[in-house]
Specification:
single chain; 10 helices; mainly alpha; 0% strand; 188 residues; Rna Polymerase Sigma Factor, Chain: A
């Protein structure tokens, strides 16, 4: 297996097997990041495909002095943010309630009230996250779910580290304001 920089160089020369190797290596990372941002499986699949089309199309523009992983994260983030701008609609209203019930760890438990409460809590948290401004949501996702450093997030989002700190601080403040009053009801 070649390193990412050699693979993208081969992709730039039209090597389809190198492209397939990159797709195999990064498809879950790209898919999960998009899905965390959009929370819509159908749109996630479409955007993930769009990300990899861009990787193929713009492989020649990759600068080898940077890490490939940062470059593909940047493409993914920009694709998500541009998609959200183009939609200019309210956050997605996926059937979160049903999804959360089906994803509960112990579905065999005979406690429907507990299952409903967990589903409501998870849906509330997800909906609150979806109401964050896109840049704040993306910075928070990269930090908390992707466990990226502030420096990595700054590189990915093409902003400064202090700007990342500010986005994450504002996102956490918003979530605290919205979720703290519900702490006792949902055991947050």
């Amino acid at each position: 297996m070649q390193n990412d920089e050699n693979l993208i160089a081969a992709v730039a020369d039209g090597d389809e097997s190198a492209f397939e190797e990159l797709v195999d290596k990064y498809k879950l990372i790209v898919f999960n990041l998009i899905n965390q941002f959009l929370n819509n499986h159908t749109e996630t699949e479409d955007l993930a495909q769009e990300v990899f089309i861009k990787v193929w199309r713009y492989a020649r523009t990759f600068n080898p002095k940077y890490k490939f992983s940062t470059w593909i994260y940047r493409i993914t983030v920009n694709t998500c943010l541009n998609y959200r701008k183009s939609k200019k609609s309210s956050p997605p209203q996926d059937s979160l309630y049903e999804n959360e019930i089906s994803n509960i760890v112990n579905p065999d438990e005979k406690q429907p009230d507990k299952l409903i409460e967990i589903a409501e809590r998870n849906s509330l948290i997800t909906q609150t996250l979806l109401h964050l401004p896109p840049n704040q949501r993306m910075a928070l996702i990269l930090s908390q779910f992707e466990e990226r450093s502030y420096k990595d997030i700054a590189d990915i989002m093409e902003i400064t580290v202090p700007a990342v700190e500010s986005l994450i601080f504002r996102a956490k403040s918003y979530l605290k304001d919205k979720l703290l009053p519900l702490k006792d009801k949902y055991q947050l």
